[in-house]
Write a structure and sequence with these properties.
Blueprint (H helix, E strand, L loop, with lengths): L19 E6 L13 H18 L8 E12 L6 E11 L3 E10 L4 E10 L12 H11 L18 E4 L15 H11 L7 E7 L10 E6 L5 E7 L2 E10 L2
Antiparallel strand pairs: 1-3, 2-5, 2-7, 3-4, 4-5, 6-8, 7-10, 8-9, 9-10
Length: 247
């Protein structure tokens, strides 16, 4: 049986298995000009709770993971100073990768559903490396035997898309000397339609983005108001993203 496409389905909380919960408060640096939680800040929260989970599990590779794809569905946006609860669990696995579901619920009614595909990598070489028996022991029960692939699904840039330079800032670079995954969401924020906040954001990371690279932001909007965006370095598509507003 073929494995499911990754980070597409928003599966319910499992009846059994490991579920880790953390809290965050939405701060001034996390919101847009109307006081609503931004997508790049949401991605940082997801990164933090994933790191907290693996560190708490005492896995020896707590920082040996990279994101391949993330979906964020904003059903009701979080707001400034809102206290959030993030619940996260493993919802699928593969040879060297795992899918992570995270639900964000706020004290004022914020509801944000997310799912990401993370690939386990060797910290020295950066190459994918197989999941361990210890990982299966800890995270296998919540995944329930579900297998996911690493196949990506977002389209490549259209010929009629607009282009403009996209600068890489020092604050975007992480200790691996790449643009951090959360920083890529800033490009999605840049092209969100005015006032749009409820909807589904998707992003796929095709290759690392290094400091000093000349990058263009490529944007296309279709007749349904769905906006697609890509970060492109020369002929290489680095990141593909899409925002589909709620109906």
């Amino acid at each position: 049986m073929p494995a499911d496409l990754p980070a597409i389905e928003l599966l319910p909380r499992p009846a059994s298995g490991r579920v880790v919960t953390r809290t965050r408060t939405v701060r001034l640096g996390d919101v847009d000009d109307r006081g609503r939680l931004r997508l790049d800040a949401t991605a940082r929260y997801l990164q933090d709770v994933a790191t907290d989970d693996t560190a708490d599990a005492q896995l020896d590779d707590a920082f040996g993971w990279v994101v391949r794809r993330t979906l964020i569905e904003v059903r009701r946006a979080a707001s400034l100073d809102e206290r959030l609860e993030l619940s996260t669990f493993c919802s699928g696995t593969g040879r060297s990768w795992a899918e992570r579901r995270t639900r964000i619920a706020g004290e004022r009614g914020a509801t944000i559903e997310t799912v990401s595909l993370w690939i386990r990598v060797d910290p020295t070489s950066g190459r994918p490396t197989n999941l361990t028996d210890r990982f299966a022991e800890l995270y296998g029960p919540s995944a329930g035997g579900r297998r996911v692939s690493t196949r990506l699904s977002l389209p490549r840039p259209s010929l009629d898309a607009t282009r403009r330079p996209w600068p890489i800032r020092r604050v975007d670079i992480d200790p691996l000397r790449h643009v951090n995954n959360a920083a890529h969401w800033a490009a999605v924020e840049e092209v969100l339609p005015a006032g749009s906040r409820r909807g589904v954001g998707e992003i796929e990371y095709l290759s690392p983005l290094d400091p000093g690279t000349d990058v263009e932001l490529v944007v296309s909007t279709d007749e349904t108001a769905t906006t697609s965006a890509w970060l492109v370095a020369g002929d290489r598509v680095v990141t593909a993203a899409r925002w589909t507003p709620a109906g």
